[in-house]
Amino acid sequence: MRAIRYTKWDPKRHGQAVPAFEHLLDIFQQLLQLTAGDAAEALHWLTQLDQEHDLTGGEMGIGDFIEELKKQGFLKEEQPGTLMITARTEQALRRRSLEEVFQQLRKSGRGTHKTPYAGAGDERLPETRAWHFGDDPHRLDITGTLSNSYRRGGIQDWSLAEEDYQICETDHATHQATVLMIDLSHSMILYGEDRITPARKTAMALAELILQRYRHDTLDIVAFGNDAWEVSIKDLPYLQVGPYYTNTRAGLQRARDILHRRRNRNRQIFLITDGKPSCHIEDGRMYRNAFGLDRKIVNRVLDEAVICRREGIIITTFMIARDPYLQRFVRQLTEANQGRAYYSSLDRLGEFIFEDYVRNRRKRVR
Fold first, then answer.
1. Which DSSP letter does residue 38 get?
2. Alpha carbon separation from 261 to 141, 232, 301, 315 (Å, rounded)
3. From residue 200, how far is each of 14, 233, 258, 349 by CA, in Å?
4. In whole angstroms, what is the distance from residue 330 CA to residue 326 CA?
């Protein structure tokens, strides 16, 4: 009888060893996502992990790793002893987020959004139609055109006439103008649950998706707490929760202003939130109420949702809380806007947004 001998896994003997720098870089990037881009805090955690678990088996110390990060352009020292991540690291975090959140995404060239309408697009449909003056000759259906010619004149008297030509239909290609609203109110880290990290990671993934695949689309980020403000793509890794109430109305107003400037026919708002609206600003003063659903605050938000609907702006809400009374508010918001809502878990948030962004066929082309 043949004996089987089990030994401890050794990557050098049984598999492909990961270089010490690459291994530490992978862990460092994960920690950066948790620390909102704080390099010093991430390195502190990395040092503790190395002391407890000997991450590289003595091949590289944390000091050597830091020097290599500087050499390769991942870290910079603004002042002596003050380390900050660079633009290269910010892009690496976006790409990592894209790979983690959208694992099924396949790299392609120019991206398009499909709609139920036939029109000028890149992907051919099985349906064909008669040729009209001005049609793109690259969409010519050769088989159908030749078949029409043979049926008309036969093989002995073959010729091509205008009525023989057939054109392949294509999906209508659209461009999107999207505003992603992220709730930075204090409730995003309450109750022992980290909700801001998945939201931040999803924002970075969506930004990188558009930069890589949908370059004709636009993405703007709006963060909201007591008020609302715009966030540039390069600042996404640094988003943090503050001691804020939830001014959803201000976020929608800011998003609507941005979409007006974009002058795109297909406009949408993605709203990531975990809680109820708890404040709004009127006549320069803040009215706030963190207890229950205050109808004075809720009605102002619903008014904004109706304005968005009248202007053709669809609001898709991604709710990352399970409280029934909060879900009732989301249903009211969705009904007022005639938009969409997803009640997402934290680990499925990116997947839900990806599917809605790429596969949404409900956009109106006017």
1. -
2. 41, 16, 22, 17
3. 37, 11, 20, 11
4. 6
Q: What average pLDDT does range 260-276 have in this prediction? A: 87
Give the helix ranges, DSSP H, for 214-319.
Answer: 248-262, 295-310
Q: Residue 168 CB: number of other CB atoms within 10 A?
A: 19
Contact 190, 202 (CB under 8 A): no
Are 326 and 246 in contact by the 8 Å Cβ rule? The answer is no
> Which stretches does DSSP call E strand in the chain?
75-79, 82-85, 113-118, 124-130, 166-174, 177-183, 218-224, 228-231, 267-273, 279-282, 285-288, 313-319, 340-343
Q: Rounded to the nearest 5°, which phi and psi values hold at 229?
A: -150, 155
The C-alpha atoms of residue 222 and residue 278 are separated, in whole angstroms, by: 18
By DSSP bridging, strand 166-174 and strand 177-183 are unpaired
- pLDDT value, residue 307: 96
Following CA atoms 338, 344, 346, 352 in sequence, which dihedral angle do they give, to the nearest 10 degrees? -70
Distance CA 145, CA 164 (A): 5
Instruction: Supply the pTM of this predicted model.
Output: 0.70
Q: Two tokens at 39?
A: 């390099």
Q: 315: closest CA among 299, 336, 297?
A: 336
Q: How far apart are CA 308 and CA 273, in angstroms?
A: 18
Q: Residue holding tokens 């009888």?
A: 1
Sign of the torsion angle spanned by Cα atoms 57, 60, 62, 68: negative
Per the CB < 8 A criterion, the answer to whether 113 and 358 are in contact is yes
Tokens at 85, concatenated: 């991540």
pLDDT in tens, 345-361: 666 677 677 667 765 53
C-beta of residue 180 within 8 angstroms of C-beta of residue 272: yes
Q: How far lies 213's CA from each of 108, 180, 217, 311, in Å?
A: 7, 17, 9, 27
- Tell me the residue length of the chain: 366
Antiparallel, parallel or unpaired: β 82-85 and 75-79:
antiparallel
